[in-house]
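Hi everyone,

Forwarding the result from last night's run.
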Amino acid sequence: MYFIVVLLTTVALPIASIAIELVFRPEFGLIAAAGKWFVFWGVGIRLLMAGTSQVVRPSFTASSIFRIKDFAAEKIVAELGYANISMGLAGAFSLLSQAWIVPAGLAGALFLGLAGIKHAMNSERSPKENVAMTTDLFVACVVAICLGSLAVR
C-alpha cells in the first residue's frame, strides 16, 4: 500500500492533473500547471498523508522507513509528522489560492530535497527508503524547476 500511495501522489496524480488542466485550460501553460499540481499532490497531499501516518502510527515510520526499533524514536517521528502535516496543509491550500503555491512549494521542495539527499547518503536503504528517496528528489526537482521558471518570468 505504501508504494501505491507514494507513486500515486508523486507521479500519477500530478501528471493526470496536469494533463486535464492543459486540456481544459491550455493557456495556463505547462510550467504553471506542473508547479500547481506537483505542489498540491507531491507536497500537499503526500506530506499531509505521511504526517498523519507518522502521528497516528509512529512505529511504522520508525521501523519500516528508518529501521529503528526503539520505542523512544516514536516521539521524534511524531514531531516529524507534525512538520509534515503543516507543510502538507500549506501545499493542499495552494489549490484554493495561487498565492500559496510559491511558499508551499519552496518549503516542500527544500524539505523533500534535503530528505532525499539524506536518504541517498544511507548505503543500506530499504526498498521503502529507496522509493521515498527517489520520489522526494523527483518532486523536489520538479517543483524547484517550476518555481525557478516562474521566478524568471
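The mean pLDDT is 94.

Cheers,
N.
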